[in-house]
Amino acid sequence: MTIEAATPPRRGGVAAGLSAGLFAATGHAALLLSARLVPGASPGRLADPGVVAFALLWLAWSAGEAALTPVDGGGRGAAPSAVASRVASRMDGSLGLATGLALLGGAWHGLWAGPGVALSPGWAAGAAVVSSLALAAGVALRLEAVRVLGGRFVTAARVEAGAALVTAGPFACVRHPSEAGLLGASLAAAILLRSPVQLALWAGVLLPVSLTRARREDRVLAAAYGPVFEDYRRRTGSLWPRLRARSPSTAP
Predict the structure, then answer these.
(1) Contact 220, 159 (CB under 8 A)
(2) CA-closest candidate to residue 58, choices 100, 95, 97, 25
(3) Which residues make beta-bridge pairs with 165?
(4) Of the candidates 23, 32, 20, 96, which has an alpha carbon nearest to the alpha carbon of residue 58?
(5) Using CA atoms, how far apart are residues 160 and 85, in angstroms rounded to an integer?
(6) Which of 72, 145, 157, 249 is found 20 to 30 A from 94 (Cα to Cα)?
(7) How far apart are the C-alpha atoms of 111 and 129, rounded to whole Å?
């Protein structure tokens, strides 16, 4: 879960992100190789331009998140006066684990099994172009949200005392751009690889997990910021920009 409360960023670099992003990058690299090394894998799969685009964007996502992910858990650089507000940390960890397994498992199956949906060459090319662009946009949104949050991009739900609510960058339009980017990128990847299994994991795991994290985060922020957050919530959508602000009586 990520909390949009701003304090001076304390990015830990690649070394600090080893427990999350770099580990994921290693896993993604391994699953890419598995498409060639596992007996029975779809031959020539990595020669598919769509798969190449997927591989490059997926690894860029992992490497970018590894470089931007800060130290979590009050390590070096944490403010001494910080007051942690942790809500069901075990649930947070379980949700994160479910997300990681769904991403890795879906991508591995899509690469190993080959395209599950047959398309004509023209439709396949068009779908590859559109889904590659959507994947790139989702990755860019996710990484920009991580960059803007800096030291506030953490797994547990917490708000540091005296921290201001972040409403800049992608947070000016949506309250949970990191979740929106993750959902957009993973859905685009499923379409790019034409994998029904990956699509099922998106609908059955990634979407409900992201919605759960967003609701839990909103509750923590509402408790921490009160009317300031309620005003922000009226002006923004959770995962998609709101076309018009809600009145106080209709705000969730």
Answers:
(1) yes
(2) 25
(3) 5
(4) 32
(5) 8
(6) 145
(7) 18
- Give the pLDDT band (50/70/90) at residue 35: low
How many Å apart are CA 62 and CA 76, to the nearest integer? Answer: 23
Give pLDDT tens digits for 38-67: 555 555 566 677 778 888 888 888 888 878
pLDDT, one tens digit per residue, over 196-227 is: 999 999 999 999 999 999 998 899 899 889 99
Both tokens of residue 206?
A: 């990634």
Closest CA to 63 of 137, 124, 121, 143: 143
State pLDDT tens for residues 99-143.
888 888 888 787 777 667 777 888 888 888 999 999 999 999 999
Residue 57, φ and ψ in degrees, nearest 5:
-70, -40
- 180 contacts 239 by C-beta, under 8 angstroms: yes
Rounded to 5°, the CA angle 34-38-43 comes to 90
Give the tens place of pLDDT for each residue, 154-196.
Answer: 666 667 667 789 899 999 999 999 999 999 999 999 999 888 9
Q: Are 135 and 192 in contact (CB under 8 A)?
A: yes
Q: Does domain 5-235 have CATH number 1.20.120.1630?
A: yes
Q: Which two tokens stand for residue 193?
A: 């690889």
The b-or-e profile of 98-110 (16+ CB within 10 A means b, else e) is bbeebbeebbbbb
| Helix, strand, or coil (residue 6) | strand
φ, ψ for residue 4, nearest 5 deg: -85, 65
Q: Name, in order, each residue with C-beta under 8 angstroms of 34's C-beta and a sequence gap of 6 or more.
A: 41, 108, 111, 112
The position carrying tokens 């598995």 is 34
Q: What is the pTM of this model?
A: 0.78
